[in-house]
Amino acid sequence: MNSIEALSVAPGLTEHRSRLLQAMAVMAADKGLANTTIADIVREAGVSKRTFYEHFAGKEDCFLSLYRAASASAVRTLQEASVPGQPWQAQVEHTLGAYFAHLAAGPRLLRALFVEVHHLGPEGLSVRREVMQQLADLILARVQAAAVAGESHGAGDAGLSPAMAMAAVGAIHELVLQAIERHQEAQLAELTPAAAAIVRALARTG
Questions:
Q1: Which residues of 118-148 are buried (b: 16+ CB within 10 A; e: fewer)?
Q2: Does residue 175 contact residue 87 with C-beta atoms inside 8 Å?
Q3: What pTM does this model have?
Q4: If we measure between CA atoms, which residue out of 74, 80, 94, 90 comes closest to residue 146?
Q5: Is 95 exposed, middle or buried (0-12, 13-18, 19+ CB in 10 A)?
Q6: In terms of C-beta density within 10 A (0-12 exposed, 13-18 middle, 19 or more buried), how is residue 72 classed?
Q7: What is the pLDDT of residue 152?
Q8: What is the pLDDT of residue 180?
Q9: Residue 72: what pLDDT?
Q10: 3-class SS at 154?
Q11: What is the C-alpha separation between 201 and 204, in angstroms, rounded?
Q12: SS3 for 123?
């Protein structure tokens, strides 16, 4: 299932809202947000403009809702990526590998989301921070849960702080952006060792 298809099964979405988000995903990937119109979105979704405005204030609101929904889908992937009983380092590497695989499944949408959100001013920045905090919290929880399992599982040196977890997410996002700029979205899984090394290094300093 790619990132656009995943929106259709996201929990809590009505049929029309789901269709509109999928339509925004298609149009943003095809044309970019600046060149996408509400007419494009409703035509792709097969709904009226009235229906659109029942759900969103405008195309920017729709795009930010798409960003949240796609990010929530990625977070669910991370939450489900677990290897119980393994050292925290292996847990983190497995989790990050699942995250990169999820992102790589929708390369065109990935480019639209990671790049376009930077052009939406303070609101875009706020939503991006919100999503980054969710990812940081998840990585922190994964490391801490492994640490609670005890020294025998290799978690005794896990000391990741909330600040260092956020620093790790920021660094990982920069790696993803660099891959996008180089048109290497299909090779995102190759970032897993470097991303895991960042978390390990920051856990030792956090």
A1: eebeeebeebbeebbebbbebbbebbeebbe
A2: no
A3: 0.81
A4: 90
A5: buried
A6: middle
A7: 38
A8: 93
A9: 86
A10: coil
A11: 5
A12: helix
Give the model's pLDDT for residue 160: 83
pLDDT at 151: 43
Q: Which residues of the chain have pLDDT under 70?
A: 1-13, 146-158, 205-206
Q: Is the dihedral of CA 15, 16, 17, 18 positive or negative?
A: positive
Tokens read off for 180: 């996008």
Q: Are 139 and 168 in contact (CB under 8 A)?
A: yes
Per the rule left: phi > 0, alpha: psi between -120 and 50, beta: everything else, 143 is alpha
Give which of 201, 203, 29 is closest to 112, Cα–Cα. Answer: 29
List for the chain the helix, strand, coil content (%; round to 5). Answer: 80, 0, 20
What sign does the CA torsion over 24, 29, 34, 39 have? negative
pLDDT at 35 (0 to 100): 93
Q: For residues 45 and 23, is the Cβ–Cβ distance under 8 A?
A: yes
Instruction: Name residues whose C-beta falls within 8 Å of residue 171's C-beta, 6 or more positions apart in sequence.
Output: 195, 198
Do 202 and 167 meet the contact criterion of CB atoms below 8 Å apart? yes
Residue 139: predicted pLDDT? 87
Return d(Cα 131, Cα 129) in angstroms, integer: 5
Cα distances from 101 to residues 11, 37, 72, 145, 187, in angstroms, run: 21, 30, 15, 23, 9
